[in-house]
Amino acid sequence: LGTLVANLGYDAMKFPKPVFIGDTIRSESEVTALRESRSRPNAGIVTWEHRGFNQRGELVCSFSRSALLLKKPS
Questions:
Q1: Which pTM was predicted?
Q2: Tens-place pLDDT, residues 38-55
């Protein structure tokens, strides 16, 4: 979409179960925080929690990610 300015980092990465060849992985993403950028008035910082599940519904990966995104034009 052309809105990503920069990935700022990943945090709390966990792999509670193994993943095997042939597994089907589905993911969920949830926005957990939003804030205005102090240095760029046209951008903001978004934080997500990402989770990956195998075909049995077991959590196999989770992490949080922050990125600097352009704001929607007014």
A1: 0.85
A2: 999 999 999 999 999 999
In angstroms, the CA 17 to CA 59 distance is 7
Beta bridge pairs of residue 24 = none
- What is d(CA 17, CA 62) in angstroms, rounded to the nearest whole number? 11
Which residues, 6 or more positions from 41, have their beta carbon under 8 angstroms from its beta carbon? none
Answer whether 71's CB lies under 8 Å from 46's CB: no
Phi-psi region of 44 (alpha: psi -120 to 50; beta: other; left: phi over 0): beta
Percent of the chain with pLDDT over 70: 99
Separation between Cα atoms, residue 38 and residue 60, nearest integer Å? 35
